[in-house]
Amino acid sequence: MIQMRRAQLSFGDGLIAEEVSDLREDWMEPADQVLADEAIVAAVYEALANRHPKSRSRGRLGAPAEVVLRLLVLKHIRNLSYVALEREVRANLVYRDFTRVGSGKMPDAKTMGRWGVAVGPQVLRQIHDRLVKMAQDKGIVAGRRMRVDTTVVETNIHHPTDSTLLGDGIRVLTRTMKKITQIVGAVERANQKTGDDVWR
């Protein structure tokens, strides 16, 4: 069952919040204000609720949409993998407070990976649109154009040297020639059976 927010904070949550209030990083306070927006949390809630037909009313209690949103935001701000995110939040009281995990059990990396898939491009678009609207309302941006800084992520490919390109070309040509040989051989065998001689 999916909830928007945690219904009730525990005694441990209050202790953690009090202990780490002066240890929070500078970006966390403005992020708190943005992530408290109902429309943003509702977009994540809808994405999670639509994963299964009865997610809104049945099953064991899952992580609230607010916690999912904050964990995914922290992952991207810190550029962490899901495994590293699980480890960092489990060990860091400031992160536990920011993500609203508090004294509760930290979700595992596989579960968070499924959340990342559920909160796909359409939900991200809704969140971005809402962020732009909020920035317009506060006079931060006009909202007509927005520049986005992107990051190139290294991937596991070989660099295209002359020899590797030549090798790739030979491999593709060999594969194509094998397919042609199979087709021609099949046609020739069929012609021999029927006595036709279409190739001459």
How is this structure best described in words?
This protein is an all-alpha fold. Helices cover about 60% and strands about 0% of the residues. It has 9 helices and no strands. Helix 3 (about 40-50) packs antiparallel against helix 8 (about 120-135), helix 5 crosses helix 6 and helix 5 (about 80-90) crosses helix 7. The longest helix is centred in the last third of the chain and has 33 residues, at about 160-195. The radius of gyration is 27 Å and the shape is elongated.
Keyword list:
single chain, 200 residues, mainly alpha, 60% helix, elongated
Largest sheet: none
Shape call: elongated
Count the DSSP helices: 9
Poorly predicted residue ranges: none
Number of E-state strands: 0
Give the terminus-to-terminus CA distance.
72 Å
Concise description?
This protein has 200 residues and is mainly α. The protein has nine helices and no strands. The chain starts with 10 loop residues before the first helix and ends in a 6-residue tail after the last helix.
